Amino acid sequence: MGLITSCCKPSASDVLTPDTETRRRQQVEAAERRRVQEEARGVKDPSRVKRMQQRTEEMEQREQELQKQGGATLKWSAD
């Protein structure tokens, strides 16, 4: 038990590392996967969240337009 021999491990010359361009592409892909996973963490329905964000942005734009026109201001509270 606990006997580790060097015949089981590959030597440094046997390990192939990808070229720098392939490595960069893999890192970018991994970063994108992590970003998507992080965005979806704890969210059951990501499309619903996006729709809600879009609706909030539209409401803010309408409020800004009303303020520019000097009309009534609408306050929307998420409470």
Outline the structure in words:
The chain is an all-alpha fold and 79 residues long. The chain has two helices and no strands. The chain has helices at residues 20-40, 46-69. The protein starts with 19 loop residues before the first helix and ends in a 10-residue tail after the last helix. The mean pLDDT is 81.
Q: What attributes does this structure have?
A:
single chain, 79 residues, mainly alpha, 2 helices
**What is the rounded Rg?**
27 Å
Structural class: mainly alpha
Largest sheet: none
Helix percentage range: 55-70%
The proportion of strand residues reads under 5%
Q: Note the total helix count.
A: 2
Mean pLDDT: 81
Low-confidence stretches: none
Kindly report how far apart the N and C termini lie: 62 Å
Per the principal axes of the C-alpha atoms, what is the gross shape?
Answer: elongated
Order of helices and strands: HH
Give the tally of β-strands: 0
